[in-house]
Specification:
alpha/beta; Quinone Oxidoreductase, Chain A, domain 1; single chain; Rossmann fold; six-stranded parallel β-sheet; 2 domains; 384 residues; seven-stranded mixed β-sheet
Length: 384
């Protein structure tokens, strides 16, 4: 089969790989019909996440057709069109029973934090992902969800990560009616978080980034204020001034490990890798939140230490909430929102790219070319 192959930082290519096989009675084999490239994949692509091994296939956002099921799979049948959450979750461990599908212990038992994730380095279990023609899906009775009648593949693939992560970012913020919400990062998840903030009753939503076309997209799609931090003397001071010197009620970090804007953070977190990514956006989030406010973190950082102003967290009485989105928990509500038109994720998919052009797709997305918000890969086998 054809599959994306990681060859080292800034190097991906299309290769022929062996077809995946059933390895456990709870497995399924899925023929991929859509596979997005996520902003989180760029952290892998740029070499920012430890233990991202040469030869791996990325891709944790995909839909497909069930081609084969193991003997213990009862909720799926061959021919089902499914969307596959990025979490690999057993559904039975202590954390899955709490709805924390992003922290499943059985899917990644050697980790003390994150659960299993498709195509996301060996820190997340070492599973190959969906940027391929076929993929093995463990615990197939738990994660994969049959795509409802009438839902498009573009809508369905966005329910595997972007919509749930943006929604959970807003949910973790505990937004109250009338709250001012600030989102750092106008990538797909940040834009979705800004859009979802209104669903929880926000009175004002601000998004901050440095890419003008993304800011313009956010203004139109999320109906929010959008500012380029390069045009601001200091983003934190700006937020304070525009909130009567109090700060924002809720601040969302949707940037993570490769944030720009601070030379020291960039050098220590992106160039020398002395910390788990540049924590610039997290600094801004903590410092621009009001006393007693909430900081919601969905941006991806490596699993080691970061330089974070914890003293400000304590002295301001902040609450920090963070996690990988628990897609399975959120899917029933979000499917309903998409079907009812409350959330329309399709406009975020600006580039439909054949899987054969995966290298170009990564370059375009990484270098912010052609006003790309989010690319989706279409394998040749999707036409079968």
């Amino acid at each position: 089969m054809l599959a994306m192959n990681y060859r080292g930082p800034l190097r991906v290519r299309l290769d022929h790989k062996p077809m995946p096989e059933i390895q456990h009675p709870q497995d399924a084999i899925v023929r991929v019909t859509r596979a997005c490239i996520c902003g989180s994949d760029l952290h892998l692509y740029n070499g920012s996440v430890p233990d991202t091994r040469v030869g791996m296939t990325f891709g944790h956002e995909f839909t497909g057709v069930v081609e084969e099921v193991g003997s213990d799979v009862h909720n799926l049948k061959v021919g089902d069109n499914v969307l596959v959450p990025f979490n690999i979750a057993c559904g039975k461990c202590t954390f899955c029973k709490q709805g924390l599908y992003g922290n499943c212990h059985e899917a990644n038992p050697q980790a003390t934090a994150v659960g299993g994730i498709f195509g996301y380095s060996h820190t997340a279990g070492g599973y190959n992902g969906g940027q391929a023609e076929y993929v093995r899906v463990p615990y197939a009775d738990v994660g994969p969800t049959v795509i409802p009648e009438g839902m498009t593949l573009d809508e369905a693939v966005m329910l595997t990560d972007v919509v749930p992560t943006g929604y959970q970012a807003a949910e973790m913020g505990g937004i109250q009616p009338g709250d001012t919400v600030v989102v750092f990062g106008a990538g797909p998840v940040g834009i979705m978080a800004a859009r979802c903030a209104w669903l929880f009753g926000a009175g004002r939503v601000i998004i901050i980034d440095q890419i003008e076309y993304r800011l313009e997209f956010a203004r139109n799609y999320a109906q929010c204020e959008a500012y380029n931090f390069r045009s601001l003397e200091d983003p934190v001071v700006f937020i304070k001034k525009t909130t009567e010197s109090l700060g924002a009620d809720v601040v969302i970090d949707a940037v993570g490990a490769e944030a720009a804007g601070n030379a020291m953070q960039t050098i220590t977190g992106r160039k020398t890798l002395m910390q788990a990514g540049s924590a610039t956006a997290l600094h801004w989030a903590i410092n621009s939140a009001k006393k007693g406010g909430i900081v919601s973190v969905v941006g991806v950082y490596g699993p080691t230490d970061n330089l974070v102003p914890i003293g400000n967290v304590v002295n301001k009485g902040l609450t920090i909430r963070a996690n990988q989105a628990s897609v399975k928990r959120l899917l029933p509500k979000l499917i309903e929102h998409v079907q009812n038109g409350v959330i329309d994720p399709k406009p975020l998919l600006t580039h439909h790219v054949p899987l054969e052009e995966v290298s170009d797709a990564y370059r375009i997305f990484s270098e912010k070319l052609d006003e790309c918000i989010k690319p989706v890969l279409i394998p040749p086998s999707a036409k079968l």
